[in-house]
Write a structure and sequence with these properties.
This protein is of the alpha/beta class and about 325 residues long. The chain has a single domain, classed as Metal-dependent hydrolases (TIM Barrel). It has 12 helices and 9 strands. The strands form 2 sheets. Strands 1, 2, 3, 4, 5 and 6 form a 6-stranded parallel sheet that branches. Helix 4 links the parallel strand 3 (about 90-95) and strand 4 (about 110-115). The longest helix is centred in the last third of the chain and has 22 residues, at about 310-330. The chain is globular and about 45 Å long.
């Protein structure tokens, strides 16, 4: 069964979550902080648009043959997020839903940390995921735009196999370790085969942090109906991606809302979340140029008949439910497969 939406009873502001921003990369490249006004998902834009929980993505080098460079870039970006946590009173690095609630009650923005692409984790080994988790890593993406030793990517499916390769033995080990630790598995960029196998193997919900629907815009990065159903039935969420290439021709707020409607039709409203991909050098849709414009999407969904509880779910309650379920399932042994 698809997850239901439970109205929030938590005191304090409701969570407004963006599941995927590449802001750490831009901060390091430009030598700026989260309070820089030119960032698409900087503090000024987030305050304007209401985002108060943001997943800061560590995007490592794409060459899978350079685990040293991967580890160095992950360290550089992680350190930048940590420095902003120390420097800015208005933000807090959150490692749990309880941390998020405390940050929001204080009127602060909660930052979560994710890695986009596990390809270089060989440097620390799968077991090294525990050290990253202890430091504050809450989510990990299996792949980026190329297949790696863990899983196939939607970016380069093998010739004659348009669905792409699934998980490898190392990938299954990574899924099991993430489950054990309570790290959220992210299948955005994974092949359809890898997405489905991860969904089926994981004993906790999984997410696609920044993916749209193939049923609206046929594109390798968008999710099949089967993948949408599996993620929904597992209790996970799919973050709407704002990149115009994935949204479709004439990308605007209405086109993004079309993807939300489609995800709702296939997987139920409880599967829908938001993962803008801001600061990722994307081509933004008309009316969604930065985090300050996100209320335009809420207005469009409300105009289409989405209820207040459904909107609260998309805004953040759906992901918070998923994240808590991943943490609650941590440490459970996997059945033999």
């Amino acid at each position: 069964m698809a997850p239901t939406i439970v109205p929030s009873t938590t005191p304090g502001p409701d969570p407004h979550v963006d599941l995927h921003t590449d802001t750490p990369t831009q901060m390091v490249r430009k030598g700026v902080g989260l309070d820089d006004p030119d960032l698409e998902s900087g503090l000024a834009a987030m305050h304007k648009g209401g985002t108060n929980v943001v997943v800061e993505v560590l995007w490592p080098p794409k060459d899978p043959a350079t685990p040293d460079a991967w580890a160095a870039q992950v360290e550089r970006l992680f350190a930048k997020v940590e420095s902003e946590d120390k420097r800015l009173e208005a933000v807090e690095l959150a490692k749990s839903p309880a941390d998020v609630r405390r940050a929001l009650a204080a009127g602060h923005v909660a930052m979560l940390v994710s890695i986009e692409g596990a390809h270089g984790i060989d440097k620390v080994g799968v077991a090294g995921l525990a050290a990253l988790h202890d430091r504050g890593l809450s989510l990990i993406g299996l792949t980026w735009t190329f297949s790696n030793r863990f899983a196939g990517s939607s970016g380069d499916p093998p010739a004659g196999n348009p669905e792409g390769t699934g998980l490898t033995d190392a990938g299954r080990d990574l899924v099991d370790e993430a489950n054990r630790l309570g790290v959220v598995l992210d299948v955005s960029h994974a092949s359809d085969a890898a997405t489905l196998e991860t969904c089926q193997r994981s004993h906790a919900p999984i997410i696609a942090s920044h993916s749209d629907a193939d049923g609206v815009r046929v594109q390798a990065r968008n999710l099949s109906d089967e993948a949408i159903r599996c993620i929904a039935q597992k209790g996970g969420v799919i973050g709407l991606n704002f990149h115009s290439t994935f949204v479709g021709s004439g990308a605007d707020v209405a086109k993004v809302a079309d993807h939300a409607d489609y995800l709702k039709k296939i997987g139920g409203a409880g599967v829908v979340a938001l993962g803008s991909d801001f600061d990722g050098l994307i081509k933004t849709p008309e009316g969604l140029t930065d985090a300050g414009d996100i209320p335009n999407l809420w207005a469009e969904l409300k105009r289409r008949g989405w209820t207040e509880d459904e909107l609260r779910g998309v805004q953040g309650a759906n992901f918070m439910r998923t994240w808590q379920a991943v943490i609650d399932a941590a440490g459970e042994p996997h059945a033999p497969r």
